[in-house]
Amino acid sequence: MTKVGAHVSIAGGVANAPGNAYDLKCECFQLFTRSPRGGQRKEIDLEKFFEDCQKYNFEIGKDYIVHSPYYINLASADEKIYQNSIRILQDELKVASEIKCPYVITHLGSAKDQDKKVAQKRVLAGLVAIYKDYQNSAMLTLEIAAGSGNVMGVDLDEFKFYFDELKKIGIEVGFCFDTCHAFAGGYDLRTSEKVQEVFREIDQKIGLKNLKCIHFNDSKTEFNSKKDRHEHIGKGSIGEIGLKSVAQEAQKLGINIYLETNHDQIKEDLILTKSFNEAKRTR
Ligand SMILES: [Zn+2]
To answer: What is the pTM of this model?
Structure first.
């Protein structure tokens, strides 16, 4: 069954996330394990985290995902930034595995002034390095980006390259589809037909079995704007019809939906999104 949740705060500690998610009536949740803009990670109270998952009815190992920090850049020509991105993602996968989280969502970074093809090879090598001697259970999941500047991971052909190359050497990664990023990056999602077209393309190029979750956001900017600005559900340029179709595709696949809209109206966004499918709800 598709569950509907949101990105939630870890103020006061990661172990507060399940309680925060419950307060918003989330059925699943996304969290950071550290400050997304930098700084050291604090110790996680694992006992409280697991206790609260049970208390608030979140299935351990299933109903939450980790989002990596924003400063990751696996395409960086700067060796220090590049190696640091690899190290941080390895650490995120380790911590996610400790809290029995199945997926770590990450952006790929930016090519800046490098040639895109060169940058793609660098990203691929970084992904391979992350998985060297891999002992943990969590899976790295690559998120589609909106496309400002020389950002990596905007079109599905690029993802096809990573998935094909990684498969050849037996590395399995996931794919995260963000509705706002995809729409701003040039994938029209305004009608049911367009949505189905996009999902067919994901299937052809990446395989729908590799689609692990949906970031569910409307877009403040116009189609193909290349700008990443999340809007409340049904209030942006994608609109309710298109987003409902995406929710229905998620339901067919049985994957969860995570909202990343501003928390001022997130409760309303969650109610509306839940109404997009007829699944029996627990909250
Ligand atoms: Zn996202």
So the answer is: 0.96
